[in-house]
Specification:
Strand content: 25-35%
Number of strands: 23
CATH superfamily: Glucose Permease (Domain IIA)
CATH class: Mainly Beta
Oligomer: single chain
Order of helices and strands: HEHEEEEEEEEEEEHEHEHEEEEEEEEE
Largest sheet: 10 strands, antiparallel
Distance between the termini: 50 Å
Length: about 350
């Protein structure tokens, strides 16, 4: 039977058989296996404490998993050529592609304490202190915030909304950072080396670092936000029952791998047809270093090990480099998500 050959290819086995699942065939097989749990648009699956990750993406559309339908237009340590060429971006710019990002909800990436809420970025900036010496920063928020300094927040709690921009400097978006400092001398402390949009003891920080500076942003304490979120979402062991969904930005199909494609010995196992909203159990995450020193979206590395029919398994790429924007060297600066964790904002 053709499916038997395909299933053997998706589990550890010396023989590799290329196969392609259609949506109809795949959903029928999942139903037989008791794994069919397709998400209907706008309907969230009930979450349990064990399956809710400790970290999640910071922007979301109503009634959709956080991060779904959105684009990181300028990734961490990429060159923002249309706005600030010659500088590395120290965070991620989150957009709703093809629509107005202003007004979308901004949510805490993890539990913590609000240690800053103010400034003119333009718009407000919120900074949250988390465990393990991490800080998350949310820039270009509307002036009516949902929180205040000193407030303890939970993961997914609403902080405010994205400012609708009319200043002509940039489209509406969320500037999102994760870093190991609140202020540090040479970046945004008592001796800032490059005063880009900030100054003396300015907690928000510049948002950029010169390409010709001797240090990569990671050396100074900035971190790749997507790597941090995925490395720390469930920790070393993914909670049983956790799921991911196919994101709106996913391609029509993706390659299933025996291990992530950049790992020695990786073998393609076939193509999986993707439909936005389809749901898969996730059993492992493999992601790049939080303090990686890559300088394009090609340095983003997020892979999920998902469960297929009859307990077959395969690795899929979740964060995909995209040439929506590129650096001056032609390398991609944008990141789209083919899969996102099935996690919603906290109830308000």
């Amino acid at each position: 039977m053709e499916y038997d050959a395909c299933r053997r290819a998706l589990v550890p086995h010396p023989m590799t058989v290329s196969c392609h699942f259609t949506r109809r065939t795949f959903l029928r097989l999942m139903t037989v296996a008791g794994l069919a749990t397709r998400a209907r648009p706008g309907v969230a699956r009930a979450q349990t404490p064990a399956t809710i990750p400790a970290f999640s993406y910071p922007l979301g559309l109503p009634d959709r998993p956080l991060g779904d339908g959105l684009l990181v237009r300028h990734g961490y340590a990429t060159e923002n050529t249309w706005y600030n060429p010659g500088w590395w971006h120290t965070g991620e710019d989150w957009y709703l592609p093809g629509g107005e990002t202003g007004g979308l909800g901004v949510y805490a990436a993890a539990a913590g304490e609000v240690v800053f809420a103010g400034s003119e970025y333009p718009g407000r900036v919120v900074i949250i202190a988390h465990a393990d010496g991490l800080y998350s920063m949310y820039g270009h928020l509307d002036y009516a915030l949902a929180i205040a300094p000193g407030q303890v927040v939970e993961r997914g709690q609403l902080l405010g909304t994205v400012l609708t921009r009319d200043d002509g400097r940039a489209p509406s978006h969320l500037h999102f950072e994760i870093r190991t400092f609140f202020t540090t001398s040479e970046v945004n402390g008592d001796a800032p080396r490059y005063g880009v949009g900030c100054g003396y003891e300015c907690p928000p920080g510049p948002g950029y670092w010169p390409i010709d500076a001797p240090e990569h942003p990671s050396v100074l304490g900035w971190r790749n936000p997507t790597h941090v979120i995925n490395r720390r979402a469930w920790g070393e062991v993914v909670a049983e029952g956790a799921t991911v969904i196919v994101a709106e930005a996913a391609a029509a199909s993706t390659t299933l791998w025996s291990v992530p494609a950049d790992v020695a010995g990786a073998e393609p196992l076939g193509e999986l047809t993707l439909t936005a909203g389809d749901r898969y159990p996730i059993i492992a995450v493999d992601t790049g270093e939080e303090d990686g020193t890559g300088t394009s979206a090609e340095a983003y590395r997020v892979w999920y090990r998902i469960v297929l029919p009859e307990d077959a398994e395969g690795w899929v790429q979740a964060a995909v480099p995209d040439a929506f924007d590129t650096g001056s060297d032609g390398r991609p600066s944008s990141v789209r998500f083919a899969f996102v964790p099935e996690v919603m904002a906290a109830a308000t």
